[in-house]
Amino acid sequence: MTSATFGFAVQATCGKARAGTITTPRGDIRTPAFMPVGTAATVKAMLPGSVRATGADILLGNTYHLMLRPTAERIAALGGLHKFMNWDRPILTDSGGFQVMSLASLRKMTEKGVTFRSHIDGSRHEITPERSMEIQRLLGSDIVMAFDECTPYPADEGTARASMELSMRWAQRSRDAFGDRPGHALFGIQQGSVYADQRAESASKLRTIGFDGYAVGGLAVGEGQEKMFEVLDYAPDMLPEDKPRYLMGVGKPSDIVGAVARGIDMMDCVLPSRSGRTGQGWTARGQVNLRNARHRDDPRPLEEGCTCPACTGYSRAYLHHVIKSDEIIGSMLLTWHNLHYYQSLMQGLRDAISAGALADFTAAFHANVALGDV
Ligand SMILES: CNc1nc2c(CC[C@H]3O[C@H](OC)[C@H](OC)[C@@H](OC)[C@@H]3OC)c3nc(N)[nH]c(=O)c3cc2[nH]1
């Protein structure tokens, strides 16, 4: 299905959890959704067709990385990011602030924006809300993130407030610069660290500006799962219930299950792909380290019953061998399995919400993990 405009409809709820559909001109996104990370115009070790085969309806691109190499202007001249990376479904791009603060050197932040030196060649660059909107327009992304500052953790109340208020001024500038682009969405990003009053002020300011979707930012920055859930017990409720809610940078499978139960509709994380490249398999019974010698004679698949190419075509012994030998196929197979597992988890969550059975699903999820891998 496609739609000329950007829309969101909830089909079922179970407690605070929602099962819905985001409609875009490039296709529908089933929610709750997990979005694989395609930082430099590729989901590492995967072909786009493979990413789709895992069940992904949307993937992520990175403003910071792509503006530095090959540049947004070059991608635009070549027909935009979808054509460039051969992915014709929806793409969401982050606005660059988080990456600048985590990757670039010699950063200087002012009210205007952030100047920095590229981590690739040391060249000088500037990102402002206006420049971030321009880059994301040049890339052609379907869902554009407002330019914000992800408040570091921990932050005292004064620091958090100053950071949140700056991000809200940048949110207004992002909205003004984005303009009117039918079929494209602009998402605002709530900040306020772990302070409920600041989270409420941020949400109120974002609602006044008006966005097509709302992200919960400033989490998964070292606060730990307990503290993150404490904030998620109230922060998503402050955002409009008729718009998608996106929790940025999350997370482990148990993070995802807990976030969905608290009203989150979209998530992204490098974990399944990045850990796949280091030989870590994610399964219904927890994490499996394929580098461990215990697998070297094991003829069984990584996960019984999994229908991914790694589990239907290969043994643990083979996966152990190619990972220890640092063979490229090791990254390919484990990335594919992990993304397949994550998408299967999302399908299970969507089905459970639609059946009004999220509590049972959650209990079974934790019971399986507790069994551990054998
Ligand atoms: C991990 N905890 C985590 N990640 C946060 C990201 C970045 C998400 C970003 O995280 C990687 O970039 C580093 C991904 O690339 C490796 C990006 O995918 C393209 C992804 O973009 C949505 C945040 N981004 C913004 N703009 N604002 C945030 O408050 C925020 C919070 C995060 N917590």
Key descriptive features of the protein:
8-stranded parallel sheet; alpha/beta; binds the ligand CNc1nc2c(CC[C@H]3O[C@H](OC)[C@H](OC)[C@@H](OC)[C@@H]3OC)c3nc(N)[nH]c(=O)c3cc2[nH]1; 374 residues; 16 strands; 15 helices; 3-stranded antiparallel sheet
Question: How would you explain this protein's 3D organization?
Answer:
The protein is α/β, with parallel strands linked by helices and 374 residues long. Helices cover 41% and strands 19% of the residues. The protein has 15 helices and 16 strands. An eight-stranded parallel beta sheet has the order 4-14-13-12-11-10-6-5. The longest helix has 27 residues. The model has no long low-confidence stretch (mean pLDDT 97). It binds ligand 726.
Main pleated-sheet profile: 8 strands, parallel
Low-confidence parts lasting 5 or more residues at pLDDT below 50? Answer: none
Output the structural class: alpha/beta
Give the mean pLDDT.
97
Task: Categorize the overall geometry.
Answer: globular
* Extended strand count: 16
- Please count the helical segments: 15
Distance between the termini: 42 Å
Task: Give the topology.
Elements: E1 7-14, E2 17-24, E3 27-31, E4 33-35, H1 48-53, E5 59-62, H2 63-68, H3 72-77, H4 81-85, E6 91-94, H5 97-103, E7 105-109, E8 114-117, E9 124-127, H6 129-139, E10 143-145, H7 157-178, E11 185-190, H8 196-209, E12 213-216, H9 225-232, E13 245-247, H10 253-261, E14 266-268, H11 271-276, E15 280-283, E16 286-289, H12 309-313, H13 316-324, H14 328-354, H15 358-371
Parallel strand pairs: 4-14, 5-6, 6-10, 10-11, 11-12, 12-13, 13-14
Antiparallel strand pairs: 1-2, 2-3, 7-8, 8-9, 15-16
The structure holds ligand 726.
